[in-house]
Write a structure and sequence with these properties.
By secondary structure, the chain is mainly α. It is about 80% helix and about 0% strand.
């Protein structure tokens, strides 16, 4: 799961850079997914160890970060994207799309982590 965390972190870094470029390289808040991605990738690197307790700790921190990322981008991402598709006007549609993609990435990441945690719990019993 640590390698998957690194991959999702890399995807968020790319999303942040693409969002920054898409918004004209003037809105530095478009780089927020980049910082979240760097944190996730860092947690993934630290969790990539043979020590199961250390791996579990850092993966739980990573999934918490992923859950917070999904929660905080849901309204501004998914909900606003749906409204935008229904005809609502937004000044920066690329920002809405980037938030929606970040929310979806975070939701998939959290789902994969939960599945992994359940499998690890079952294997221990």
């Amino acid at each position: 799961m640590a390698k998957i965390t690194i991959a999702f972190g890399a995807a968020l870094v790319l999303l942040g850079i693409a969002g920054f470029v898409a918004t004209g390289r003037t809105h530095y808040t478009a780089l927020i997914p980049t910082w979240i991605g760097l944190l996730l990738a860092g947690l993934g690197f630290v969790a990539d160890t043979g020590d199961s307790k250390r791996r579990a700790l850092f993966m739980h921190i990573a999934v918490t970060l992923g859950l917070l990322g999904a929660i905080f981008t849901f309204k501004g991402g998914i909900v606003d994207y749906v409204l935008m598709q229904q005809g609502h006007y937004y000044l920066y549609p690329a920002a809405i799309e980037a938030k929606a993609v970040m929310c979806l990435l975070m939701l998939v990441f959290v789902a994969l982590c939960v599945r992994s945690f359940i499998a690890a719990r079952r294997a221990r019993v």
